[in-house]
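Help needed: design a sequence for this.
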């Protein structure tokens, strides 16, 4: 295992040399040549981004969440900019699974891109039928189960916010998905204990986790003095949510270090991606930034490789979860061992934490 050391002198990865870092990663048994994927909902099925970079060069294209039947989505306005982010209330607009298979997935297959198909539904039965339709479809690298949809059978409660309902959906999808195809459960941060939800979906058959989905937010237009979105609330994405996302990944990896995590939430640069990797993510999804930089997934992959090389890592896998390990850090008076997640704090530390709230 390579130990990270911040190097000095000539920087690796200059125009003359590429960083000598093995960027191969494994996500729930799926081998990927790059740890950078697109994020569901921000790139449809990859056609638009393919004109800016070769989509076969990244880890995979995570498709927009597809539902069983065509859906027009919510009324406009359904997007609003916020400081360091944006709110969206699209409402899972899409053509339905049959059209998706015929057009979008076929295009990805012909293009040679790896496809992670994101699915969404309003009932367990819808998820079951979606998984069944994908069961015999070739070239599906993995299935991402978007459980942040309201459960129409339970007064609109979001599946991901309750351990039992989240587990029920994932169990149904896993049971109806072909063996060997990884199932990733996409978790919501709008919960009291995300580790509890993570444990529930893994126990139900999830092979890995996608973390995190957007946070529920709201903007009021101070000119009209009404909600800016027709749907009133929407999902907050972008750099504003990155600290929340990193915290969620860190907590789940600390509790379940053996579970693969696809991290996402406000990633704009390679250093942003590195935060997720150090917190415990084996791969990352890049989303909102593509609206102003469509080539971001490829750029972030290069920046991440450079950042790893500069810190002395020979491979991406060596960096996964590194922030949890006890290691030497410089402090006044000399280096001391920093506490990892497996080291108990002493009484003085506990008192300080309590004083800070």
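Sure. Designed sequence:
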């Amino acid at each position: 295992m390579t130990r990270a050391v911040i190097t000095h002198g000539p920087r690796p990865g200059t125009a003359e040399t590429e960083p000598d870092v093995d960027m191969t990663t494994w996500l729930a048994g799926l081998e990927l040549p790059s740890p950078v994927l697109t994020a569901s909902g921000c790139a449809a099925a990859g056609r638009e981004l393919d004109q800016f970079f070769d989509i076969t060069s990244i880890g995979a294209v995570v498709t927009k969440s597809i539902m069983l039947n065509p859906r027009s989505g919510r009324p406009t306005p359904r997007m609003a900019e916020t400081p360091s982010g944006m709110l969206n209330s699209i409402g899972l607009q899409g053509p339905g699974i049959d059209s998706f298979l015929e057009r979008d997935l076929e295009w990805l297959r012909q293009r040679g891109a790896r496809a992670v198909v994101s699915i969404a539904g309003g009932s367990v039965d819808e998820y079951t039928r979606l998984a069944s339709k994908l069961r015999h479809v070739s070239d599906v690298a993995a299935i991402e189960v978007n459980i942040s949809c309201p459960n129409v059978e339970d007064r609109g409660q979001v599946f991901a916010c309750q351990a039992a309902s989240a587990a029920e959906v994932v169990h149904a999808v896993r049971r109806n998905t072909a063996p060997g195809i990884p199932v990733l459960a996409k978790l919501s941060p709008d919960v009291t204990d995300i580790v509890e939800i993570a444990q529930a979906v893994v126990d139900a058959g999830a092979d890995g986790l996608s973390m995190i989905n957007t946070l529920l937010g709201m903007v009021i237009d101070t000119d009209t003095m009404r909600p800016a979105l027709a749907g009133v609330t929407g999902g907050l994405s972008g750099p504003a949510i990155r600290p929340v996302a990193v915290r969620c990944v860190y907590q789940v990896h600390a509790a379940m270090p053996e579970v693969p995590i696809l991290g996402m939430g406000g990633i704009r640069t390679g250093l942003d991606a590195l935060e997720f990797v150090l917190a415990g993510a084996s791969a990352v999804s890049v989303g909102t930034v593509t609206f102003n930089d469509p080539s971001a997934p490829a750029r972030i992959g290069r920046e991440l490789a450079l950042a790893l090389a500069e810190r002395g890592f020979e491979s991406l896998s060596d960096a996964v979860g590194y922030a949890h390990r006890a290691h030497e850090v410089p402090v006044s008076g000399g280096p001391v061992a920093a506490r990892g997640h497996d080291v108990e704090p002493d009484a003085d530390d506990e008192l300080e934490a309590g004083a800070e709230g």
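The first strand starts at residue 25 and ends at 27.
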